[in-house]
Amino acid sequence: MTANSALPFSSPENLWSDAHAAALDPAALLLYRSNLLGSDLTVTNFGGGNTSAKMREGDPLTGEPVDVLYVKGSGGDLGSMKLDGFSTLYLDKLLQLQRLYHGVEHEDEMVGWLPHCTFNLNPRAASIDTPLHMLLPFAHIDHVHPDAIIALAASSNGESATNAIYGDSVGWFGWRRPGFELGMRLKEYVESRPKLRGVMLAGHGIICWGDTSKQCYDNTIDLIARSAAYLNQRLAKAPAFGGKVVDPKAPQERGRIAASLMPRLRGMMVGDAPKIGYFTDDAETLEFVGSRDFAALAAMGTSCPDHFLRTKIAPLALDPARSDDDEYLRAAVDEYRQHYARYYARCAGPDDPAMRDANPVVVLLPGVGRCAFAADRTTARLAGEFYGNAINVMRESSGVSTYRGLPEQEAFDIEYWLLEEAKLQRMPKPKTLAGKVAAITGAAGGIGLATARRLLDEGACVVLCDIDREALKTAEQELHARYGTDVAAGVWADVADENALRNAAQKAKEEFGIAFSSRRRRAKRRAMGILNAKSKEQRVALYRDLLKVTKDTMAQASQVVEQLRTVKLGEVSQALLAEHGA
Ligand SMILES: [Zn+2]
């Protein structure tokens, strides 16, 4: 790669182990293949894609062997799923559904029939991609949306590029949203082309297959790797997105701007629930936001439905020089919300679900990076990552020819599709403290750590502050293992040191997009009083006073916890406990 060429594209590696696979039964092999595919970000990102296998099993009532379709069920993630993540359905009953199909206007009704085909009372709901897997006559099928594939699928001459890469072994099928109609048409398509080993689904992803789990896995990895190699060869010849026009700022400055911007934006995103931010300044994002074609491409919107369901069609682009100008930011957020409302008004029909949250999800700043906002931090990180995928796709597509977004109405129909709405309704309700962030001092042990666990159980994010570096690291690792790495961040801080506290606050802003209000600062001063108190008795009395002061805000648990952020919880609580002889 020369300094002027685009960033190269990651290629998947074949990680199949025959030794491991030898001991597995067919269902376990399907799970093994799914976990391998799902844990490789060059194959699929979180929650994306699905896999299936058709196998013979004994009917629970008669003991007779029957054909059963195992297909990844609705929700869940290929990389981390267990066997109970697959729905299991009688294949012969599924195939009989074709007789009940009355055409594309009625295809959504077909989803209602799927539960009637359940094998062995498996409660896992079948996904909207089930028709693809059941109707195609292959024993093992993978359907994934890797960046290297969508780049072809979303490119204006993707069909000829597909042909150049795979010859006639991979087909090309025009855009059609997932569902029964796509399954039926695809079945006809592959039946007339017996040499195919996969089909490119325009604007979407790929579906490919094999006679065994191993063959299917090998095929999927090989198809993606070949596309990545082809794209990299072309991308090496020219800079991405028309070349660089804005240099990335120094890393520290990028962090400073993000920390200043995110709490402001968070406060401006009015809606049902508070949001958490996630900031990234990875090389792909900086290349994109600093490029000549950035504004035009960003406005065009993401193409793959899997992406824009998470990111919204278009991001909000901001001028980094005005990242602390509240008037400018408020106008930009308002304009975005109005723009979204106009899009909804243009496209919605009488039967569509009500308009969802109109706030931007992804915010981009040339020279700085990207922020993503969502009701919880993992969702914010994933939305950002999905936009990262969209950037990859745009880069690759531009390398092949021209990037193409989906037509607006098609995009809307997917975004507000009733079946997608049903999927959203099935998601677990947010926990009581979702969207809140608490900073806890003395957080590496005792009651401080117990408080962190309690808050995490309720859906809050926590910034852990402690003076004991080793203990802090251990506590952070424990919480990451139990709750995931998104929701807890450790910062070394001596709470008697204003500078250290300022760093901790900066970290909270940068990590989660949270600022502390003046009321919180008042509480902090009281808390500082506790720390500076001469005696244990005085400290305990001041702590009681602090609790009294914050009593009226107890309903807003997060605020209280943030107010407590400078209190050495462990020490004070131990004192209180000792006082009561506990
Ligand atoms: Zn798909």
Fold and architecture overview:
This protein is α/β, with parallel strands linked by helices. The protein folds into 3 domains: 18-235, L-fuculose-1-phosphate Aldolase; 251-426, L-fuculose-1-phosphate Aldolase (3-Layer(aba) Sandwich); 437-579, NAD(P)-binding Rossmann-like Domain (Rossmann fold, 3-Layer(aba) Sandwich), CATH 3.40.50.720. It has helices spanning 18-21, 26-38, 91-96, 130-135, 147-153, 158-166, 180-191, 213-235, 251-268, 283-289, 294-300, 305-311, 326-347, 377-400, 408-415, 418-426, 446-457, 469-483, 498-512, 518-532, 536-549, 557-563, 569-579; strands at residues 50-58, 65-72, 86-90, 140-144, 170-173, 198-201, 205-210, 276-280, 316-317, 362-365, 369-374, 437-441, 461-466, 488-492. Helix 5 crosses helix 14 (377-400), helix 12 (305-311) crosses helix 14 and helix 20 (518-532) runs antiparallel to helix 21 (536-549). The structure holds zinc ion. Residues 143, 145, 178, 204-205, 306 line the site of zinc ion (ZN).
Provide a compact summary of the structure.
The chain is α/β, with parallel strands linked by helices.
